[in-house]
């Protein structure tokens, strides 16, 4: 039985939940909300991102990791994570966190473009 489509749908669902939660957490980080310190808010992103990454690895194995667009997504994912940590935790000022959040969302949008086009050029393909 081919599990590609169920895994892909779970991956896309996890992507959607991940960016929604990132946007909420980034807003709370910029505004200094105490909600950012809630236990569920600290744990849930890790659970969602673990599902997302696991599905991504399985899909890459099914498709074949030699695809250039998959490598592009991996590199962009690393950049997204790095910039995202400044948006949520490491940014020292609200302005820094806001700029990092905007950059992280831009990287995310490019990752989606790469995934949809199946090309490293993403939206420009």
Most strands sheet: none
Distance between the termini: 33 Å
Overall mean pLDDT: 94
- Overall helicity: over 70%
Q: What percent strand?
A: under 5%
Number of helices: 4
Could you list the spans in which at least 5 consecutive residues all have pLDDT below 50?
none
Q: Please state the structural category.
A: mainly alpha
| String of helices and strands | HHHH
Gross morphology is: globular
Structure commentary:
- This protein is mainly α and 125 residues long.
- The chain has one domain.
- The chain is 80% helix and 0% strand.
- The protein has 4 helices and no strands.
- It has helices at 4-31, 39-63, 68-90, 94-117.
- The model has no long low-confidence stretch (mean pLDDT 94).
SSE layout and pairings?
Elements: H1 4-31, H2 39-63, H3 68-90, H4 94-117
What keywords describe this structure?
125 residues; mainly alpha; 4 helices; membrane; SirB; transmembrane helix; transmembrane
Please sum up the structure shown.
80% of the residues lie in helices and 0% in strands. It has 125 residues and is mainly α. It has one domain (4-124).
